[in-house]
Amino acid sequence: MVVMMQRHMLHWRYRVWRGSGLGMEPSDKAVKEHPRLELSGITKAFPGVIANSDVSFKVAPGEIHALLGENGAGKSTLVKQIYGILKPDSGAIVWDGREVDVPSPHAARTLGIGMVFQHFSLFEAMTVLDNVALGMDDPGKDRAALAKRIREVSESYGLPLDPAREVHTLSVGERQRIEVVRCLLQSPRLLVMDEPTSVLTPQEVGKLFETLRKLKAEGCSILYISHKLNEIKELCDQATILRGGKVVAACDPREETARSMAQLMIGAEFRSVARREAGKGTGPIRMELKALSMAPEMAHGVPLKSINLSLRGGEILGIAGVAGNGQGDLLAAIAGERKAATPGAVIVDGKPVGRLGPAARRKLGLCTVPEERNGHGAVPDMSLTDNAMLSAHKRMGFMKGGFLDTAKARGFAAEVIKRFDVRTPGTETAAGSLSGGNLQKFIVGREILQKPEILVVAQPTWGVDAAAAATIQQALVDLAGTGSAILVISQDLDELLTLSDRIAVINAGQVSEAMPASTVSVEEIGLLMGGIHGTPEKGAA
Amino acid sequence: MALKIEARRQISTRMLYMTPFIAVFATVVAGFFLFMLLGADPFEALYEFFISPLETKYGLSELGVKAAPLIMIAIGLALGYRANIWNIGAEGQLTLGAVCGGAVALAFWEETGFYILPLMAIAGMAGGAAYAAIPAFLKTKFNVNEILTSLMLTYVATLFLAVLVFGPLKDPMGFNFPQSRMFSDSAILPIIWEETRLHAGFIVALLAAVAVWVLLTRTIIGFQIRTLGSAPAAARYAGFDRTKLTWFCLMLTGALAGLAGTFEVAGPIGQLVPNISPGYGFTAIIVAFLGRLHPLGIIASGLLMALSYMGGENAQINLNLPQAVTGVFQGMLLFFLLASDFLVRYRVRRLKPLVEGA
What we know:
heterodimer, A: 541 residues, alpha/beta, six-stranded mixed beta sheet, disordered C terminus, B: 358 residues, mainly alpha, two-stranded antiparallel sheet, 13 helices
C-alpha cells in the first residue's frame, strides 16, 4: 500500500514539474506521464487454485505490451479482470492515474478498453453490419451511417470488410477483423488481444501487425497475449511474463532471444524435441484416402472435397490449416466416427474401411486423438481407469465375455500415468479434474501404448503447457521411430515444422499435395492456408 | 456482505450418497413444523406418518406390494436415464404388459400348470418392450423426441386397455362390469408372506435391481450406457453404437415396466380392470432420481415412496389431515434432495471485502 502511494506521488510530482505529458521524448515517457493502465497487486483465486497472485505491471500510452505465459499461467484470467468480466479479489486497476472499478465489460468500454477474444462471438447467419451493431453499446439508429463507418475504419486500418456480407461466407481471418473493427469503432485507448494469431495464416498475421503498429502510432496501447515468442519479439515493446499466476519477469522482448523468453516462461531449461534424421518415412503405405468427400456435419461448415492422401510407415505427415476448414470432419472420417460414402474412400493396409466404425478401425491398428479433450477424447466424470477402458478395451483386451476386466484397465491406466508423467493422485481420479496438459498426456499416452500402426492426432499440444507439449511431441517422434505412421492435424505451424516429415495444407475442405518439410517455406504454406491453390512451385513463384 | 456460489473442485462421492438421508432427515424436521402449523401434535403426526405403517404386518406387507412395481420400473428407467434416454411412458408400457400378460392368463383360464405364470411374464415383457419399441423406432429413425412419444403413447395404452375390458376381454359372467374373468390359481403369483398380499413379484423386483446393478457396473454394455449419458461425443469416439444402445435401453425399460404390469394383474388385482396402476409408471420417475439412478438406492427410495403413500393415508384417516399432506411430503423430500445435491456440488462462499492484505 505504502509503495503504491509513493509510486503515485512520484508520478504526480513529475507531472507538476514537467507540465503536461505532451511533447516528450519516448525514452522517459514512462516516468513523465501516467501509464495508460497500471495493475497493482491483482490477486484472483478460484477454488483450489490461485489464478493471479499479486500481479503488477504498467502499460504506457502507445505501447504494445506482451503478456506472455504458458497455458494456465493466468493470462486470460488477468485480462478478464481488466475487461470487467471477472472481479479481482484484491488489488487495484489504475487507469490514466486514477484507480477505477471495472464492474462490467460495458464499464470497460466506457473507459476506452476494447477486447478481441480468442473465440469470436458472432452470429453466422447475420451480416457483418448486424454483428458489429449487436456488439456495440450504442450503435445508433442510422445503419447506413454505421455501414459507412465500418468501411472507412476497416479500410484505413488495412482490414477491409464488406458490411453487407453474411458472416458464414467469411474466412476465419475476416471474422476476426469484425471483432477488431468493432473495437476500433469505439476509438479504444487500450486494445486487449487474446491470442489473436492462432487462427490466422502467416500473411494475415503480417497484415494484423501492420494494423496494430498503426494503432500504436496513434497512441493506442495494446495488451497482446500470446505464447508465440517470435511474434512478440517482432511486435512488442515490453513483455510481462507470467508463470503460475505470478509475474516472474519483465523484459524488452527485442533484446531477448526466443529461447531466453521460453525459459522464463516455463521456468526450466527449454527442452527441444529431438528431430529424427532425414530419410525416415519410407516404409510401406499404411493408410490412404482416395477421393474422400463428405458433407459438413455442422451447419455452415465446409464439405470435404475429394481428398487424396497417403501415409507411410515411419513418417509424420502434418496437415496445416486455419481452423474451420474441415479438420474436424477429416478426423471424424479417418477415425470412423463419420462413415464415408464408399468403403474405398479410406484404406488401411490395403483394406477398404470407409464404412467401418471407430472400434473396427482401431482393431486394424488405426488409433486417433481428437482435438477436444474433455467430452470427446475423455469422459470428464469418469476415472482414468474408465477412460483407459474407453478406447483401449478391445485392442488391449479389457473384456472377459461381456464383462469388464477393470483390474487390467487399471494396470494399463497406471502404466500410461507412469510412462507419460501424468500428474494425478491416482488411476481413480476423474479425468475432468486433471489439467489440460496432464489430460492430454494421458490421452496421447493411452493411444500410443496401444501400439497403433497408424496414429491420427488433432492439435496434440493445443492449450498444453510447454513441458507437457515437449513430452507429447517427443512421444510422437518416438512412435514414428518404431515404424508407425502418424498424421498430425494442427493449426500450429511451428509445431508441424518441428515434427513433420511432410506437410500438406487443408483449406476449404481440400487438402493440398504433401510437401517435404525440410524444403517447404512458411510463405508457401501460408499461401495455401489462405486458399491460393496450385503446385508448390507456382505458389512460390 | 456478498455471497457467491461456486463449483466445488472435488465433489465428495460419499456426500453424494449421503444426500438422500440428509433429505429425509430435513423432511422429517420440516414435517414436524408443518404438522404443528396444521394444529396436530407433531410427534403423534410424524409417528402416524412414518412409523405406524411399519408396525403392523398389514402395513409392512403393503409396503412391499406398492414398492415392487415402483422398484422394477424405476430400475429400468434409471438405466435409460444414465444414457440420457428419457422414457417417461413407463405407465403405458406397464399397461401393455398387463394386457399381454393378462391375455395369456385369460387364454388359459381353465387350465392349470406351472408353465402359465412364466408364459405370462414373457408375454408381459414382450408387450411392454414392443410398446417401448415405438418411441425407440421413431427416435433412432427420425430423431423424434422420445419424451413426447412415450408420454403420449401412455394415454393410447390406457384407452386400449379400456376397449378390451369393455369389449372382447369382458367377463361373460360378470354382469356387464368392465372387467375380465378372475384369473385361475395357476395365473396368480404365489404369496410369499402368509395372510398378506405380498407376492413373489417383490423378490423379482429386488433381483432385477441387483441384475441391473451388475449390468451397469460390470459389463461392457453398462459401460457404454454410462459413457453415452456422460459424454456422447466420447461414446462416438470409442465406437459405441448410439442406435443400438437406445434400442437396448428402451426395450429393457419397456420389458421391466411390462413385467411390473403383469405382476399387478397377476398379484394384487387378479384380473384385468380399466385402472391397473395408480400412476406407478410416473411415480417411478421420482423413485429413480431419489435413488441416485443407482439400483440399490432405488430399492430404498422405492420403499420410501411406498411409505409416503401409506403415511399419507394414515394421516388422513387417523388425524383428519388433508390428503394433500402426501404430496407435500413428497415435494419436500424432492426439494431437500435437490438442495443438498446442489450444496454437495457447489458451495456458498462469503466474499472477503476488497482490502489490501498485509
